[in-house]
Design brief:
418 residues; alpha+beta; Jelly Rolls; 3 domains; 22 strands
Length: 418
């Protein structure tokens, strides 16, 4: 390598440009939210748009506030996070005055289609009526019932959800209700439902968060949409400073192929939450030992505003510890569903542990009570919860019945308070 090449290398390393370094990163990690009609407050699709916010981008990425990705381990699909080198590059680019570089080197900006990403759906539906979001005040958690869109049962391979107004829709979770409870509560404009949708069993079908891709079931494991089940959209709205309206839509894609394997949910929870004001390290736990070999496919955590740390791990029969989820700085505003980059094999007799830690001190910037107040278990905004759902499949289909029976017994014991 000659002197000229070495000099050029260090010059390029010292001076990142938009065209060569920043644009590919922004288009890959930021543009899914930051585009016209997206959930973010401004677009980031041109040099001028990105350069205008260079200092802000450097600050929020350095603090890891953006992109909104909570887990630090293990590896998941579609991770929305930056490496330390990428974060440093944003900072250096901003400090150098946000140079554009050679426009010919700039990759083509992504185009966001108006139609459904996966094409024409088998079932398309929307909220029965437009919902009005107030200009100011607390966030709104509202459930909307779409009455029994299908008289037949179907296997669902994918779901896409499109907020009608991304400016105020923070996230959406789709449930199906076979009890009829939700339709009794919805008088036409939905009903409040912070935390849970208000019926059991609450069968989740998928969801939407800013930047999310359509929810596609794992290969060979479609979800069952029950015949005559109501669809229930749980929508989290955040006021924008002006009165807004929303009418969220969804698309469902069927498959004629029944599941080759059965995915089961291992729920972890604790209702023994009673956090004194000022306690910065209140912990709750739960555990379960798998009776058969399983593959962990994904994980869904849930808590409210006082929770600070989520940790789930598996202790294998040989003593090896495997991290299943590590979120050191939980933020209720960016909760999501996570699918592992590759299934995690958990042999029979593996003990799975859940640990949630809460910070009910004044130092917690997300504490809804200032000064801190006593926080108990409950579905309210200022209550707390501890929930973690591990999605698994039995390695040997012959073991599915044993796993199902064990999980059923666990649920019965939990309901009896044992």
């Amino acid at each position: 390598m000659g002197p000229a090449v070495i000099a050029a290398f260090f010059a390029a390393a010292a001076a990142p440009t938009f065209s060569h370094d920043i644009a590919p990163l922004v288009y890959r990690r930021c543009a899914t939210c930051h585009h016209g009609g997206g959930v973010a407050p401004f677009p980031l699709l041109t040099y001028r748009e990105v350069a205008r916010h260079a200092g802000q981008i450097a600050t929020v990425t350095a603090k890891r506030y953006m992109p909104p990705w909570l887990p630090t381990a293990p590896h998941f699909q579609h991770e929305m996070k930056l490496t330390p080198g990428e974060i440093a590059m944003f900072g250096k680019w901003a400090a150098e005055g946000a140079p554009e570089g050679n426009p010919r080197e700039e990759p083509k900006a992504p185009v966001f289609a108006e139609g459904w990403t996966l094409g024409k759906p088998d079932l398309e539906a929307e909220m029965p009526a437009t919902f009005t979001v107030p200009a100011e005040g607390l966030d709104v958690y509202q459930c909307f019932v779409i009455r029994a869109p299908s008289p037949r049962a179907h296997w669902v391979r994918a779901i896409d959800i499109r907020p009608g107004n991304p400016k105020v829709v923070h996230h959406v979770i789709l449930f199906q209700d076979i009890s009829g409870t939700a339709r009794q509560r919805d008088r036409g404009s939905g009903y409040p439902c912070f935390g849970t949708p208000g019926f059991l069993p609450a069968r989740g079908l998928g969801g939407w968060t800013p930047g999310a891709l359509p929810f596609v079931s794992p290969e060979g494991i479609p979800e069952l949409l029950h015949a005559n089940a109501d669809l229930v959209l749980q929508v989290h709205y955040h006021p924008s400073g002006r009165v807004e309206t929303d009418r969220t839509r969804l698309a469902i894609y069927y498959t004629p192929q029944p599941p080759k394997r059965r995915m089961m949910d291992i729920p972890f929870t604790s209702t023994r939450i009673d956090i004194p004001p000022g306690d910065a390290a209140y912990k709750v736990t739960d555990h379960f030992t798998v009776p058969v070999d399983v593959d962990a496919i994904g994980v869904i955590p849930h808590a409210h505003y006082v929770c600070r740390r989520m940790y789930a791990y598996a202790v294998l029969p040989d003593g090896t510890r495997r991290t299943l989820l590590s979120i050191p700085n939980w933020d209720f505003n960016w909760q999501g569903q996570y699918r592992y980059a590759a299934p995690i094999r958990l042999p029979a007799d593996t003990r799975i542990e859940m640990e949630f830690t809460y910070d009910n001190s004044a130092a917690n910037p997300r504490n809804p009570n200032q000064p801190p107040a006593r926080v108990r278990y409950g579905p309210g905004t200022k209550d707390e919860m501890a929930g973690l759902h591990l999605q698994v499949v039995a390695v040997d289909p012959a073991d599915e019945e044993e796993l199902s029976n064990t999980l059923w017994g666990r649920m019965i014991r939990a309901q009896m308070g044992r």
